[in-house]
Design a protein that fits this description.
mainly alpha; Sodium/glucose cotransporter; globular
């Protein structure tokens, strides 16, 4: 009997059932979108940490560390830095506005500040881009089941995708927050047990350093191979996590601004402490497994091969839970953007709470299916992650930050930021070799800022004249 596979399947069924049970308390759109603004700071910390520790920060980071070394730390480190900025400055401001004015989504804030056109465009971009991010999580979950039980990729994608779609569709943020609290315990426990055991099994850091064929830059924390690690990950990820619609809308569910600040701050600190664990595991895999062909299977391979069966099963469950917990955060973005920012705003402005809840659940169901289909087409986790975070940085970061700290800018500035950011992102993505400073995220972010500030200065000059 494959003990690890049986454990994973049983665990997945239990998580799904728990989420559906919690979802019985959801009776309207407010419960689904913001959990009735009832979440304490421990629940905020748990659901945000579970959302942040996903495919990129576990399987993706380990795969990068296997290839590049210590510089892969930045995949997690940048996430923690972005979340800390959200905790200390951005999150409490947005929560207060949401509480005072009844905001459910980032789109509500954008429309109040810039108008309906900006809201609609950003909502559409988020809904489309989030599908790529969802696909990345499902690819990682499928990699675990492939290594553990030899399941074809499509079957692994289906198992993870169906689980998270069912429990999130049932209860939205409320189900997500309570399921995530359980997932975080399994997640952190699995990695904290696995990392020291595997490091000792392979002979410690000395054995890693002595491994034949490792690059000279393997221990350089700032090394960057193309757009895969080091400073480029800081540029790629930090802005997106400062204004991530999924995290902001989780913060909207807090009971007060203090819970936002403490919950997000605890999540950021835990993220940075956790950040070294998948990197150490990825580097340790080079010692006994020097010929792993796919970055997607580095982490599940080393856990399965180097740990006792019971501990290996717990650690593999930790990876799988990381992917599923992040999937529900992504579905949250898809469901809320589709129902609140697109359906209610542009199709049925008089939609009732019951209608909104129905559309949100339908959007989550459709998003889950589309994410599963896309996961069968993308090659690697990192490919999928880059699509979403590049798009988020190039389109949403500048308008969001600008709206919080300036009252002078309007719809033209926001549109200029979005158009310039996307244009630069696509030009660099498809028109350059994307090495060195030719990073699409960096140029998209800079062009977005130039468009926003340039339009603001032009309008100010015309008024002065």
């Amino acid at each position: 009997m494959n003990v690890a596979l049986v454990f994973l399947i049983t665990y997945t069924v239990a998580l799904t059932a728990f989420g559906v049970w919690v979802g019985r308390r959801v009776t309207g759109a407010a419960d689904f979108f913001v959990a009735g603004r009832s979440l304490s700071w421990p629940l905020i910390a748990g659901t945000v940490l579970a959302a942040n520790i996903g495919a990129g920060t576990t399987v993706g980071a380990a795969g990068l560390a296997y290839r590049d070394g210590l510089g892969a730390w930045w995949w997690n480190g940048a996430v923690g830095i972005g979340t800390l900025v959200l905790a200390l400055w951005v999150g409490p401001k947005l929560w207060q506005l949401a509480s005072d004015r009844g905001h459910f989504t980032v789109g509500d804030f954008l429309e109040e500040r810039y108008g309906g056109a900006v809201r609609g465009l950003v909502g559409l971009l988020i809904a489309v881009g989030a599908l790529a991010l969802l696909a990345g999580q499902l690819i990682a979950g499928a990699a675990v089941l492939e290594v553990v039980g030899g399941l074809p990729r499509w079957q692994g994608i289906a198992i993870g995708g169906i689980a998270m779609t069912v429990y999130f569709t049932a209860g939205g943020l409320l189900s997500s927050a309570w399921v995530n609290a359980l997932q975080v315990v399994v997640l952190l426990g699995g990695f904290l047990v696995a990392a020291p055991l595997i490091l000792r099994k392979v002979g410690g850091l000395e054995a890693i350093a002595a491994t034949p064929g490792i690059p000279a830059t393997y221990w350089d924390p700032m090394y960057s191979a193309g757009v895969s690690s080091g400073w480029t990950l800081l540029i790629l990820l930090t802005p997106g996590f400062i204004i991530s619609p999924g995290l902001v809308q989780k913060a909207y569910g807090a009971i007060d601004a203090r819970s936002v600040r403490i919950g997000l701050g605890v999540a950021a600190g835990a993220q940075m402490l956790f950040s070294f664990l998948p990197v150490v595991l990825g580097m340790a895999a080079r010692v006994n497994h020097p010929d792993i062909a796919s970055a997607n299977v580095v982490l599940p391979t080393v856990l399965l091969a180097e740990l006792p069966v019971a501990i290996g099963a717990l650690s593999l469950a930790a990876i799988f839970t990381a992917e599923v917990s992040t999937c529900d955060a992504i579905l949250f973005m898809v469901a809320t953007s589709s129902s609140r920012d697109l359906y209610q705003r542009f199709i049925n402005p008089k939609a009732t709470s019951a209608q909104m809840l129905f559309v949100a659940r339908a959007a989550a169901l459709i998003g889950g299916v589309l994410g599963m289909l896309l996961a069968t087409q993308l090659a690697t986790i990192i490919d999928a992650m880059k699509i979403f975070y590049s798009l988020l940085s190039a389109t949403l970061f500048v308008p969001m930050i600008g709206a919080l700290w300036s009252t002078r800018a309007g719809a033209r500035e926001a549109m200029a930021a979005i158009v310039c950011g996307v244009t630069a992102l696509l030009t660099v993505q498809f028109g350059t070799d994307r090495t060195g400073w030719w990073d699409p995220s960096l140029w998209g972010l800079m062009a977005s800022a130039v468009g926003y500030v340039g339009m603001l200065m032009t309008r100010s000059a015309s008024r002065a004249a």
